[in-house]
């Protein structure tokens, strides 16, 4: 299922953020959104999910306009992974993941055995099944992030929108999550994520969109869009893009002459 | 000199002038010293014509003794109370209470009324002594505290009669009180405690508020020869009772002034088993112009005393209620009740409130 | 690994624990009720009491018999009242705490008690009969919360929950001021004591005829809460996440507020303002069975019922006069709350 934004204006009343944003994410691909803090990534995501109304333009999820879809139908089409947060009450990780099943339950129903299996499967897939009974409020930031991703998986949607899914993870967990995201895309899901690390875009991005001051500076494949010039402009520091001997492309900010 | 300096100098001059005025102010031209119920010596002017009543009990005291001196009612006289106050005093302004919780009466407003004297009738405990001293110091108006206990009524009447310059009327009313008390004592002399009626004072819309024995709100019960069933050592004042406690106490007489309660009690299963209800001895007190048994606890209780004596001891009490009410309202409240007004009052006292 | 995870999950989910707790609590409430039926100032042996009760049930009602009246017309309604009020306040507290994502919230947060207080005080001020005073209390509670809702809806920006809470604070303060004004204007010898006692809360005068109208309203409020229990969980993640998970957050919140307000207002109307139950009991419930609303709600309700029954039984037995309920619940509740605070973060769980 594809997600498309056409000429989208985002922001809050009296406080516009993004202007004329057009993005497209196809099935089986990963769209990476890059941009510095305050460039409007999170606002764009909230608009894509219908959590805040668009100030102009439109969002298409599959063949339907976002506004025409009821809340539960949106949640059956798009799952959202917010940045790891603290829950007010000590739910178990499994309960948090189970909440991902809500859109698949009737108004008055409770999650059943099948939902529990889906939740457990999602946790297992990320290798954190042993966290299931743990108190969510006592998990580390990285563990919480993984639980939230598991919740999105339990939602069993064809598309995922992830707000900086690797931000609070340690080096190893970053690798696990990136590998999992790539695998999910391979299995046919549509994934849109934001990241601060251009390397991640090079690693798993099918396409990237570079946000700068509320506008999309450029889009395309990572190799084409993430040029040293573009990254230097957006982040305001000199950047070099190099190909490592392994064939992976990495991005190196210039820290100045160390000699 | 700057403007500020001018202002400061001006203020200083003003303050000095004020200080001089205070220090050199002449004492009241003629004054007497009255020792009030709390033992305070208070300088009172020779002729007292304007009295501020600190609370409802005091206003009744002043009204009974010297109505022309009363500056206003702490609570305005309303609706059905009006016919029972002499026309000249029905429309006196509402002045608020100076005592009690918060003290609503504004001291400036008290001063604006230019009273010669402030009278409080009720508790003479330290809090009230202190309040009286403070108000007296702040306003310069003599403030006397009068004991509101029922037993002290005659003495209190004499004291205030003197203070207001109506000693003869004070003496007359005090005698009236003493006569009533003496008549009661005479008929109660050979009634042992066990055979006196067991009385419950029902307050509040559900009748479950009551006054403990020994509180000022229930003194009239013992004075009229009843026994208050709400009795516990060390507990005074208004309390809430549970229905179970009332059933356990099983009073044979209930007195109230709450019409809602009086109307509901007859058909209420909770109260159905209580002796007073079964014997139809739940009595509604009239409250015009003031309550007969309390509300406020002041001279108005003298009327209730006669009424209760008749209810408790119908064989022994000689008085006839109609005649007693007519005489009492004339003597104490300065009103000659018409037949209709008297009928209304007596119907009220027999359970049919207006 | 898979097997291990599965068993862990079962334990962690605390389902079995929840059911056991509920069973235990039901038994405890039943036992306490029977015990409460047997204590009171009126001397009545246990066998006599049971005999009288059976007589009354069989219709062999000795009319006007004091012992039967005490059992059937006083203790039974009072016990039922304590159970109903305790359960309702604790359930509403659990609801509001989950809804507002804050364990320090009590059912009064949206001004229902302040509104009910104003309504009832106005009733006393106008010298209305008891039933009318209760109805005014109920209407006042609903009115205050409705006003809060309208004020919050009129403010179109900012965090919805925060605005709702602030509107509740403002309306609560205003109704409190109006209540104080009525206290100043009220007849000091007649109405003021009645007002004071009402605001302190009491079950002293509760009768069957007070319970019958209130119970269905409480039930009508509780049933949707039970049915919506899963979604109320999700709402505790915050509006945005709940909506991303497919919930119409605004509508659900409105439904929960309406239900919890109905529940609270109907019991405040019969018992007056009884504090602390709705604040402290949901905490204990959460410590026992975790925050999952499906278990939290029944456990909080049962605990609340048991707690208020015990406190009210104390209120009518420890002294020769009634101790106002609000005083006792505060005396028991406040130190406990401090202890919870001192235990630290885990207490919020």
What does this protein look like?
The complex is a heterotrimer of chains A (259), B (354) and C (349). With 259 residues, chain A is an alpha/beta fold. Chain A has nine helices and twelve strands. In chain A, helix 4 (113-125) crosses helix 5 (141-154). Chain A is globular, with a radius of gyration of 19 Å. In chain B, helix 13 (301-312) packs antiparallel against helix 14 (321-333). Chain C is mainly α. Chain C is 77% helix and 0% strand. In chain C, helix 4 runs antiparallel to helix 14 and helix 13 (277-289) packs across helix 14. The longest helix of chain C has 34 residues, at 66-99. Chain C is globular, with a radius of gyration of 21 Å. The two termini of chain C are 28 Å apart. Classes of the chains: A alpha/beta (259), B alpha/beta (354), C mainly alpha (349). Chain A binds chain C through residues 12-13, 46, 49-51, 71-72, 74-76, 79-80, 82, 87-92, 94-95, 99-100, 102-103, 105, 107-111, 116, 120, 123-124, 129-130, 132-135, 137, 155, and chain C through 1-2, 4-6, 8-9, 11-14, 98, 101-103, 156-157, 227-231, 233-234, 236-237, 240-241, 243-248, 286, 290-292, 294, 348-349.
Features:
heterotrimer; A: 259 residues; alpha/beta; Rossmann fold; six-stranded mixed β-sheet; 9 helices; 12 strands; globular; C: 349 residues; mainly alpha; ABC transporter involved in vitamin B12 uptake, BtuC; 0% strand
């Amino acid at each position: 299922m594809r997600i498309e934004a056409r000429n989208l204006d985002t922001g809050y009343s009296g406080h516009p953020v993004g202007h004329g944003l057009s993005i497209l994410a196809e099935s089986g691909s990963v769209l990476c959104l890059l941009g510095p803090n305050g460039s409007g990534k999170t606002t764009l995501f909230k608009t894509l999910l219908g959590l805040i109304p668009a100030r102009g333009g439109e969002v298409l999820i599959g063949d339907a306009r976002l506004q025409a879809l009821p809340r539960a139908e949106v949640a059956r089409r798009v799952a959202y992974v917010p940045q790891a947060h603290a829950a007010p009450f000590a739910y178990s990780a499994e309960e948090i993941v189970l909440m991902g099943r809500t859109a698949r339950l009737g108004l008055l129903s409770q999650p059943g055995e099948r939902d529990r299996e889906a939740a457990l499967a999602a946790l297992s897939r990320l290798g954190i099944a042993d966290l299931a009974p743990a108190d969510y409020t006592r998990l580390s930031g990285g563990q919480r992030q993984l639980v939230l991703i598991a919740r999105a998986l339990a939602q069993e949607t064809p598309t995922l929108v992830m707000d900086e899914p690797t931000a609070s993870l340690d080096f190893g967990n970053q690798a696990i999550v990136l590998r999992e995201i790539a695998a999910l895309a391979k299995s046919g899901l549509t994934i849109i994520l934001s990241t601060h690390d251009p390397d991640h875009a090079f690693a798993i991005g099918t396409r990237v969109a570079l946000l700068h001051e509320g506008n999309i500076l450029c889009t395309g494949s990572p190799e084409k869009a993430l040029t040293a010039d573009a990254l230097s402009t957006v982040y305001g520091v000199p950047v070099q893009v190099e190909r490592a001997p392994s064939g992976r492309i990495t991005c190196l900010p210039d820290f100045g002459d160390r000699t | 000199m700057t403007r500020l300096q001018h202002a400061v100098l001006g203020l200083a001059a003003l303050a000095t002038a004020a200080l001089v005025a205070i220090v050199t102010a002449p004492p009241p031209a003629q004054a007497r010293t009255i020792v009030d119920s709390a033992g305070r010596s208070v300088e009172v002017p020779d002729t007292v014509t304007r009295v501020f009543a600190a609370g409802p009990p005091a206003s009744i005291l002043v009204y009974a003794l010297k109505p022309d001196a009363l500056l206003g009612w702490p609570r305005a006289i309303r609706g059905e109370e009006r016919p029972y106050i002499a026309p000249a005093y029905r429309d006196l302004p509402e002045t608020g209470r100076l005592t009690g919780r918060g003290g609503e009466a504004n001291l400036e407003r008290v001063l604006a009324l230019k009273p010669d004297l402030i009278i409080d009738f009720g508790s003479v405990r330290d809090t009230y002594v202190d309040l009286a001293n403070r108000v007296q110091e702040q306003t310069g108006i003599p403030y006397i505290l009068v004991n509101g206990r029922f037993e002290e009524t005659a003495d209190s009447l004499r004291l205030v009669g003197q203070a207001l310059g109506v000693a003869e009327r004070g003496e007359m009313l005090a005698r009236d009180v003493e006569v009533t008390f003496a008549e009661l004592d005479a008929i109660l002399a050979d009634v042992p405690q066990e055979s006196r009626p067991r009385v419950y004072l029902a307050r509040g819309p559900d009748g479950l508020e009551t006054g403990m024995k020994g509180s000022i709100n229930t003194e009239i019960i013992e004075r009229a020869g009843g026994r208050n069933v709400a009795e516990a050592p060390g507990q005074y004042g208004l309390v809430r009772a549970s229905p179970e406690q009332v059933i356990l106490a099983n009073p044979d007489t209930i007195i109230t002034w709450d019409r809602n309660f009086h109307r509901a009690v007859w058909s209420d299963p909770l109260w159905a088993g209580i002796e007073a209800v079964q014997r139809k001895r739940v009595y509604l007190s009239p409250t015009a112009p003031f309550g007969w048994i309390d509300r406020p606890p002041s001279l108005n209780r003298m009327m209730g005393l006669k009424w209760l004596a008749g209810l408790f001891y119908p064989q022994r009490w000689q008085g006839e209620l109609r005649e007693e009410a007519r005489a009492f309202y004339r003597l104490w409240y300065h009103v000659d009740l018409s037949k209709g007004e008297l009928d209304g009052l007596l119907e009220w006292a027999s359970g049919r409130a207006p | 690994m898979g097997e291990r995870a599965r068993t862990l999950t079962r334990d962690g989910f605390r389902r079995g624990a929840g059911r056991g707790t509920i069973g235990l609590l039901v038994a405890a409430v039943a036992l306490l009720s029977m015990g409460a039926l047997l204590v009171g100032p009126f001397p009545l042996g246990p066998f006599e009491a049971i005999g009288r009760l059976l007589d009354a049930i069989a219709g062999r009602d000795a009319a006007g018999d004091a012992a039967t009246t005490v059992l059937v017309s006083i203790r039974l309604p009072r016990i039922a009242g304590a159970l109903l009020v305790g359960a309702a306040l604790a359930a509403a507290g659990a609801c509001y705490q989950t809804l507002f994502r804050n364990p320090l919230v009590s059912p009064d947060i949206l001004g229902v008690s302040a509104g009910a207080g104003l309504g009832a005080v106005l009733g006393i001020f106008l010298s209305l009969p008891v039933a009318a005073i209760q109805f005014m209390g109920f209407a006042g509670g609903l009115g205050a919360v409705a006003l809060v809702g309208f004020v919050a809806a009129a403010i179109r920006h900012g965090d919805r929950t925060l605005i709702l809470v602030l509107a509740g604070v403002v309306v609560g303060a205003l109704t409190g001021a109006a209540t104080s004004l009525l206290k100043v204007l009220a007849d000091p010898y007649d109405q003021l004591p009645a007002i004071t006692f009402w605001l302190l809360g009491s079950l002293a005068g509760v009768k069957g005829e007070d319970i019958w109208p209130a119970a269905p309203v409480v039930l009508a409020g509780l049933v949707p809460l039970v049915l919506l229990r899963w979604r109320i969980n999700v709402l505790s993640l915050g509006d945005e996440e709940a909506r991303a998970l497919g919930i119409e957050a605004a509508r659900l919140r409105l439904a929960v507020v309406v239900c919890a307000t109905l529940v609270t207002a109907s019991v405040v109307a019969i018992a007056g303002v009884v504090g602390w139950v709705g604040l402290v009991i949901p905490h204990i419930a959460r410590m026992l069975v975790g925050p999952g609303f499906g278990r939290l709600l029944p456990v909080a309700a049962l605990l609340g019922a048991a707690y208020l029954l015990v406190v009210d039984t104390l209120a009518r037995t420890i002294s020769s006069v009634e101790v106002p309920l609000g005083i006792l619940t505060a005396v028991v509740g406040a130190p406990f709350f401090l202890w919870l605070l001192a235990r630290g973060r885990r207490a919020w769980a």
